[in-house]
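step 4 of 6: structure.
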Amino acid sequence: MRTLVRPTSLAEARAALLDSAGPVAIAGAGTAATWAGALGPVETELSTTGLSGVLTHNPGDMTVSVRAGTPLRELQAAVREHGQHVSFDAARVEEGATVGGLLATGDAGPSALVHGSLRDLVIGTTTLLSDGAVVRSGGHVIKNVAGFDISKLLHGSYGTLGLLVEVVLRLHPVPAAVGTVAVECDLPEAARLAGELLASQLEPTAVEWLSSGRLLVRIDSTEEALPARLDRVVALVGGTPDPVSGDRRPGDDRRSRGWEEHAALTRGTPGEAVLRIGVKPSLLPGLLARLPVGTVTAGLGTGVATVSVPVGEVAAAHAAVHAAGGTSVLRTRPVSGTAVPAWGPPPSAVAVLRAVKQKFDPDSRFGPGRFDPWEIS
Amino acid sequence: MPLDPIARAAITAALPPDEVVDDPVRTRAYECDGLTGYRVRPEMVLIPRDAAGVARAVAACHRNGVPFVARGAGTGLSGGALPVADGVVISVARLNRVLEVDVENRRAVVEPGVTNLEITAAVARHGLYFAPDPSSQQVCTIGGNVAENSGGAHCLKYGFTTNHVYSCEVVLPDGSLVTLGGDTGEQQGPDLRGVFLGSEGTLGITVSVTVKLLRTPETVRTLLADFPSVAAAGDVVSDIVAAGIVPAAVEMMDTLAIEAAEEAVHAGYTVGTPAALVVELDGPIEQCDSEFAQVKEICDRHGCTRLHIAGSPEERAAIWRGRKAAFAAVGRISPDYFVQDGVVPRTRLAEVLQRIAEMGEEAGLRVANVFHAGDGNLHPLVLYSAAKGETERAEHLSGRIAELCVELGGSLSGEHGIGMDKACSMPTMFGEEDLAVMQRVREAFDPTGISNPGKVLPTPRLCGERPGRYRAHPLEEAGVIERL
Ligand SMILES: Cc1cc2nc3c(=O)[nH]c(=O)nc-3n(C[C@H](O)[C@H](O)[C@H](O)COP(=O)(O)OP(=O)(O)OC[C@H]3O[C@@H](n4cnc5c(N)ncnc54)[C@H](O)[C@@H]3O)c2cc1C
């Protein structure tokens, strides 16, 4: 029997934890429920959707604090009125993913090339541990080196270390003008063009190849400079400006048709498993050529790709990525059926991961199974 | 308490003789870092040649329960590399090789003793550079930058060391060698690299770092602008930000700091002006031009009394020379000084400067201000004369300024770290429980507490059981629990 609790405050969340026993699943909007290791049996499901809302937005300081169950797109809408946004464009944002969920899954979108992932944008967190301890780290200022940066530990923790309750984020100005150049090409050609772009001083915000056979290059700019900057991209790599779809204002997060297609491709091919892989950018094209991939979005500057592969090939894919020195994690497993390995071999610091888990969640209540087969417990 | 002879022998045996220093004359050179007011002579200094040597040294310390303190260039300003009395210092000075430059993947693998500037020097011919640029970059090491999560004038746009490191190889406090982080921004599970960055040597010793390199920007525009008041200069910063511009750097100096800097390096600053701003933009030419025009317009709107635009790389270098000299130059107008490093939300800059001026007046001490205005990171320099017996008063004022920053919603430190200097102030920023959980992180990496003990987190031994001012627990703020 699984009990569902939906606290609306830190105090309620703490009481719910302390009043229950046994394993607990932390759930946000559920947009990444199938990511990483399959959740083992739990007695309590703790939903963060009641922990919602912007707490403080200081436009002059370009910082915002929110409760962790707030969908990022709601936060974006609130701060965009002031010409600001969180420089973060993972596809799940549009599906209603929460700030806490995006942080806990270490997600990132194409603009990670310049802005990094949420770990680079989070400046403070409040986290509830399974024994009822509450820890704040960081603060409300973008520059701060006081104390250990616990926010980083929660990044990629998949609900195994603690419940994020509040998150403070750094904001950036919404670029006044955004344009994308699309080039029809195959992956080896895209890799060559990306190499030229990244060696140039044109400063693209995102450089992604799509398995539909297109390279997308995004430029964030001032109004005045955009035409010239796009012209220079076209002069270097060819292609044409990618049309902005009708219902979107310039400055919106997914700015053109190409990026909508990109978001759709990250969801994979029905019936196949989706893997997120990261490898040195120069090794990515060769690695993808060796894998039996279906749909692909490949960050040619970041080395991060989201691909679909047949279920039976997941283990071999993990091994191939590992052999190239990279990282891989399962993102979508087919609904039922055979166990699909979520992770490749454990990182060299797995003993530290185990020790952190033991210190933060001594009774192993949070997120059983999420890091299987690494035995983080 | 002197080092136990058995432990001493075991540690000595772990390394070749020329990597062990225990002659008191030579160990004296390691008794302090950049915060020279605190000195402790270490029992021994170990200077291994490679990562394996560091691992052997740490393992020997671990087996014998001997605390160790990692040391880079010793430029830290918070006593982070201050030795512990019954322990050893492990210097990474000999691990100073650039191991690999990977132009295609825009990264380099370097040993921890490589200086910040040597990284850029090694890659500049490929049009690449390492973005974090602490003012001490000619001498401070990348290992120290990782430990302190150092920033610099350009971190407003480009971020701190943590945003520019893919992975670190680390000798854990039990002597084992692990890699934290990986080849991309994607991490496998919790971001251990992220928590290690900025842990000030308390979680282990870095033995190599894979840093991210950036392509040098196409163009750089730098201006120096004078204003009739600090408040007017502050308004300019706010308006630049409100215009949606993220400058590469925005630095402010007040009258006293300008006076000192001019006296020292004659960089062309206006002596007597109440405030000066250095604003730098970089990027593609078209972008830079359109933003630079806006910045000039904003300066004019706020009554700029002199606008100097660097017309050549030499002029730009001069502007920065003035800014970077300000710290040391203060030595010309005052026999002694303390540097603070608090941060306030940018919108409270004018208020905090006003309060600092009042506090200085009350204490009868002068305070010069040089700071990173874009991100609210202050560097108040409290001027005093030890010979006149002003030390204690100055120290008190300096500590009060850091705590004031916390009161205004900021932080005790923007880049210099907590070390031992500010460990006892941590309870003004964090509650007991926050600190207790940070202690859990420390124990996960270092169960026996031998890696740089007494730094970052307050201990009763260091700080007394001083209840003092404290930070309310989140549940107290929510009205759930109370403290009677
Ligand atoms: C004039 C001056 C200007 C400065 N300007 C800036 C500035 O603009 N921005 C800024 O951020 N800082 C600045 N600093 C502070 C200082 O230079 C930085 O903190 C720097 O990163 C320290 O590097 P270091 O090699 O000197 O480290 P050290 O002082 O030797 O050590 C600093 C800390 O790091 C730990 N440590 C050192 N090496 C390692 C290692 N390999 N593994 C694990 N731990 C290690 C030490 O134990 C200690 O806790 C300035 C200092 C001076 C003197």
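step 5 of 6: annotate
 - Residues B 33-34, 69-77, 80-81, 92, 112, 134-136, 140-141, 143-145, 147-148, 150-152, 200-201, 205-206, 327, 415-416, 452 surround flavin-adenine dinucleotide (CB under 6 Å).
 - Chain B is about 35% helix and 20% strand.
step 6 of 6: archive
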